[in-house]
Amino acid sequence: MELEVRHLRVLCTIADTGSLHRAARELGMAQPSLSTQLRRIEQTLGGQLFVRARTGCRPTPLGRAVLSRARPLVSELAALVTETRAAAARADGPQLRIGATASRAIPGWLRRLRACTPRTEPTLQMDVSANSLLRMVASGRFDMAFVHEVEGSPLRVPAGLCLRVLVEREPQFVCLAVDHPAAARPEVRLCDLAADRWMVDSTVDGEWDALCRVLRTAGLRPDMLHGDYLTAYSLAATGEVVTVSQPTARPRSDLAVRPLHGDPIGVRLLLAARSEEELDRGYAELEEAYWEAALQAPAYREWLGRTGTASTASTASTATTVDAATGTTGTTGTVDTVDPASARRPLPSPGALPRPDGRGGRRVAAG
């Protein structure tokens, strides 16, 4: 077997994650396939590169020597691909390549982007994995990505990306059959669902682990089923399961969307790009679209009016820069924010509702 750059990337990923299991998830491979590939790489190089133990993988002296040469090569190739794709995109004319995890804000976001930049046609690719989307932004496949970071499962942000927080903590609600006894209440306690089975999409980064933690903390051990959320909603409508729901989801005639008591599950909503200038191309439109969707969701609108501290009617707020490595913060000046529903009636204006992030985008410098 001839050694290729993809093999070097495998070695770097194993070293970075410290685990064959985590590396396989990062690379989108099955763990047995990764183990087989690692053995072939070691046979080609003539020695063991990693010590496998129950606690994970760590490089051997030979492995460290190989990694010291592999990392610069992988990094240089990644930079070459990113720069080439960006140049090709510029040559093809103005466009805005967007990646996103699921959100009801996306249709309104695309509509606003088309309206404000009529010569630029935004393209969209959806993915359940926020980490995959961030890697694609870093590699130049996307210009920006709108992603969800599940509380307790930090995203692996590639070096060089700029992040801006749309919502610091969005509570996750529960979706259940409209005739479920708990649906009669405006707020559901986890103990109300003790006898129910849950269905969760385990391919969504951090989602399965977050729900398991919350249920364990509540002293519950319900049956947990794997499944995509389209299937989960269909089964929830018949009373077979209950499932986690974004608060912006609108209720159906056969489904109820309710907040969980104490808001035990939260996500952070982020926009990622390779520069602040690229973030500026889409952040304001995304913010408007998000709060439009929020106000159209009765349960979320009620939650917003019931919790937090009422925001002022001012349309300017101070943005904060957060260094992801050091945790230090600093003021970057005022950021104009737009009242996304000032003309909508009879819905209340977002200026009259508390926002989980206190209005305005918070910038996060990832390095």
Explain this structure to me?
With 367 residues, this protein is an alpha/beta fold. Helix content is 37%, strand content 23%. The chain contains eleven helices and 15 strands. It has helices at residues 5-17, 20-27, 31-45, 61-91, 106-116, 130-138, 207-217, 229-237, 276-280, 283-295, 298-306, and strands at residues 50-53, 56-59, 95-100, 121-126, 144-150, 162-171, 173-177, 198-200, 224-226, 243-245, 255-258, 266-273, 316-323, 329-336, 362-365. The strands form four sheets. An eight-stranded mixed sheet has the order 4-3-5-12-6-15-13-14, sandwiched between helices. A three-stranded antiparallel sheet has the order 10-7-11, covered by helices on one side. A hairpin with a 5-residue loop joins strand 13 (316-323) and strand 14 (329-336). Helix 1 packs across helix 2 (20-27), helix 1 (5-17) packs across helix 4 and helix 5 crosses helix 10 (283-295). Mean pLDDT is 82; it is low at 309-359.
How does the SSE layout of this entry go?
Blueprint: H1 5-17, H2 20-27, H3 31-45, E1 50-53, E2 56-59, H4 61-91, E3 95-100, H5 106-116, E4 121-126, H6 130-138, E5 144-150, E6 162-171, E7 173-177, E8 198-200, H7 207-217, E9 224-226, H8 229-237, E10 243-245, E11 255-258, E12 266-273, H9 276-280, H10 283-295, H11 298-306, E13 316-323, E14 329-336, E15 362-365
Parallel strand pairs: 3-4, 3-5, 8-9, 13-15
Antiparallel strand pairs: 1-2, 5-12, 6-12, 6-15, 7-10, 7-11, 13-14
